[in-house]
Specification:
mainly alpha; 12 helices
Length: 239
């Protein structure tokens, strides 16, 4: 016969935990001896260890009571095992992302977008442009993943067209120009011609009512007065 303290020690729990299990009907309270103390048997220790194992596996106490009092324990435990496997996989993925973050390699962007961004410096784009592109694609992919994939592939294809690549590079380079520099006006004309040649009258668009295009263009315009005027010219000429 064991006291509650002895039982707790053997089962690896506290006496308070045992009392909670009693209160919730998980572990029947034993009879008391003549001195009024609970006395436990080996069977109580076995039951307590089983309950503790389920609780440590993350099974809610209410669910443990249900499992211990009915049938289907094996199926329920298999389901719990599957849930644990999923949780372990999730934790392993989280560890991997934390390690990537620690090494500075973490990005929630698709691999193809990361590869695209890595390619830009070698083509002559500024670090400022690469950073801006990274931030804008983060926003677009987080809010409109399906549209983002379509628009990304459209933009990425421009890098393989020498004429279009030259236009985009020029867009990057006018960043620091005076807004009324003739090169800004000339680039606006080139962009309008290239856009019409590529898309005709049906320009690429996001879902109707989406605020993302305005946010994206606002971020671009905010970084350069020349880009802001360029956007104004494009809107006027592409109407």
């Amino acid at each position: 016969m064991l006291t509650i303290g002895q039982l707790a020690g053997y089962a690896g729990v506290t006496t308070k935990t045992i009392r909670v299990y009693h209160a919730k009907g998980l572990l029947p309270e034993p009879e008391r001896d003549s001195s009024g103390y609970r006395r436990y048997r080996a069977a109580d220790a076995v039951e307590l260890i089983k309950i503790r194992t389920l609780a440590e596996a993350g099974v809610p106490l209410a669910r443990i009571r249900e499992l211990r009092s009915g049938n289907g324990l094996a199926d329920a435990l298999r389901q719990i095992d599957d849930d644990l496997a999923a949780r372990i996989a999730g934790l392993q993925a989280t560890r991997s992302r934390l390690r990537q973050l620690a090494s500075g390699r973490l990005s929630p962007l698709p691999d193809e977008v990361v590869a695209y961004l890595d390619r830009l410096p070698g083509l002559g784009f500024s670090e400022r442009w690469v950073t801006l592109q990274n931030d804008l694609w983060l926003l677009v992919f987080a809010t409109h993943p399906e549209t983002a994939h379509r628009n990304f592939h459209d933009q990425a294809a421009m890098l393989d067209n020498p004429a279009l690549l030259a236009v985009v590079l020029e867009y990057d380079r006018v960043h620091d120009l005076d807004p009324h520099d003739p090169r800004v006006d000339a680039l606006a004309g080139t962009l309008v011609s290239a856009t019409r040649a590529r898309y005709g009258e049906e320009l690429p668009a996001y879902e109707e009512g989406s605020a993302i295009p305005a946010l994206v263009q606002g971020a671009v315009n905010a970084s350069s007065p020349a880009w802001r005027r360029l956007d104004t010219l494009l809107r006027e000429r592409l109407r």
